[in-house]
Amino acid sequence: MPVDVELFGIPRARAGVALTTATGDCLGDVLHDLAVQFPSLGETCIEGRQLRAGYTANLSGQRFVTDPETPLAVDDTLLLLSLDAGG
Amino acid sequence: MPHPLFGYHGKYLRVDVSTEQAESIALEEVTLRHYLGGSGLGVKLLLDEMTAEIEPLAPEAAIAFVFSPLVGSPLTTSAKFAVVSKSPLTERINDSLASSGFALAGKKTGHDALVITGRAVEPSVLVIEEGRARLQPAGDLWGLTNGEAQKRLREQLGGDYQIATIGPAGERLVRYATISHDGRHAGRGGSGAVLGSKNLKAIAVRGSQRCKWAQPEKLIDYAKQLSGKSFGPATAKYRELGTATNLLVFNRLNVLPTRNFQQGSFAGAEALSPERLSETRERTRASCACCTIGCEHLYSLSGQSAGVGLKTSVRVEYESLFALGPLCEVPDPDVVLAASRRCDELGIDTISAGGTIAFAMECAELGYLQAPWLRFGDGSALLRALEEIGAGTELGQLLAGGSRRLARHIGHDTIDFAPQVKGLEIPGYDPRGLQTMALGFAVGARGADHNRSGAYEVDFSDQVDRFNVGIEAAALAVETEDKAAVMDSLILCKFLRGVFDDFFADAANMLELVTGWETSAEEMRETAQRIVTAKKEFNIRAGWTPAEDTLPARMLRQPLPEEARAQLSPQRLQALVVAYNGARGWSAEGYPVGMITGH
Questions:
Q1: Count of domains forming chain B
Q2: pLDDT exceeds cutoff 60 at B307
Q3: Touching check for B318 and chain A: CB below 8 Å?
Q4: Looking at this predicted complex, what is its ipTM?
Q5: B2 by DSSP, 3-state: which?
Q6: What residues make up the domain containing B449?
Q7: What is the pTM of this model?
């Protein structure tokens, strides 16, 4: 299933794009696909099917998710961002 | 014979600038161990000075510049000091921190803190060298911007002094005036006005007295490890993009306060983002003293469009961008950068300046404030308002009191949308969409504050539903507040927080390596609770009541227009506050059970 992905901060800088599409039915699969599409993103932000420490994911601006088995719906948009908000 | 103190001098310098008398006063080891330094030791010293009961701009009110056991150590980001006083903006405790060589030189005077009371008979500079203090006239500096005053004083005194100054705003007692040193600011709560009320334009420090460390070899090894971690992924965001990268994230999540908190997103956010700024202008990086992260990102500002003369560069932080951009609905990056630069020159807190001006814009729009030119989205109006604050015009004096005082002056229930808690303007996190942070804002001792409570971290996790936070979030909010209390007292930069696996254990280890105390993570947690409680005690003595632990009515009545789930009722906030007080071990209303600081 194709999923829209929006990237912010370091994930955007590493991937070199703000928007993309990845394939997968759950969070882990989409992250794995992103790492394949964007090796520099994979090297810094993604480890296997999970995000590395310092990064987080959000579904459609609503809830933050970390479990790789989190199912994704067809109209979900995945947001990838740096974890720390402060500043 | 008592054993030697490591990491501390074991004394503070108390200076009465009315009489020009200075006295070194011993600090007991137990006091240092209980309050560490920085914010913690500062509030303890002010409790002892009975400052809570005194009007904050009265000569008798004390202001403390407090160092820490880690200052002067090889630990990255440790060159920090806290300025602690009663806030003229909130009339509650205020502790604002800055990083610079002032901390290093101040501690080398041979003291763990400098406590200043009194009022000099004329505009003066307080010069502290080793253990001695003197005043010198500063009439020629009065009216100068921070940068100008520091440059001239360095020429007069010599380059080896470290000099903290106030700008024209501090002289005029603007209630959110800052204290500045080398481009860094003790920013929030108006400590610059407290210094101005003492007729002090500047404090210059110089010294040569160093503290020994209990376990220097292990400390150096640990410091190397910590520096190594500080180059890693946990700090990449700050190092590569800076805090301003929050702008697009917050905009996407509909928690970017816009148009005086009437909206949670801003159509002009992209143009203000560091991602866009770096495409169109030069960018340089800088670091605070003794910092390996280097979070400062400076962007070039074309002089012509912003009317600032020669091309210059401006440090860009998220909070300044949000407050002077979206909050005032100003989309022009040149104007926002020029406004940020002007705040630094005048010596005013960008968050409170932006918050107060945005509030005034809404009042003017409603016809409650006779300033028809003051309109949302008008960059020239923003810059003019800042100039009026700096010049002390009639309107400027109204704005200089902050949004709460302005609302009280205007009436018409405008207090309902004055963007403040306890008088301190709310930083760039809309509490309706970040409801653990809403709790952190409501209970914050110095008011709405993202530096004393890191509760947004909870909202940015899968531990809670940020739109519908339950009372289980209270304990999580306490945890972030406790971490901040220890970080602000040791003192370390909060941008390091992501590199620690177990912060309290690491904090205990650092303290042990420096001081030799056999301490523990559990003791660090107890210390945090003691410091937070001491701040509450200060506030109670200053007149705090439970009714203060809330948010503006707008936040509790109106959901964000972009997100219907982003609403927080008064009842739910109150339940969160009660749960927070319970997690602290206080009464449901928020009174500590017994005052633990001995007063």
A1: 3
A2: no
A3: yes
A4: 0.96
A5: coil
A6: 435-584
A7: 0.96
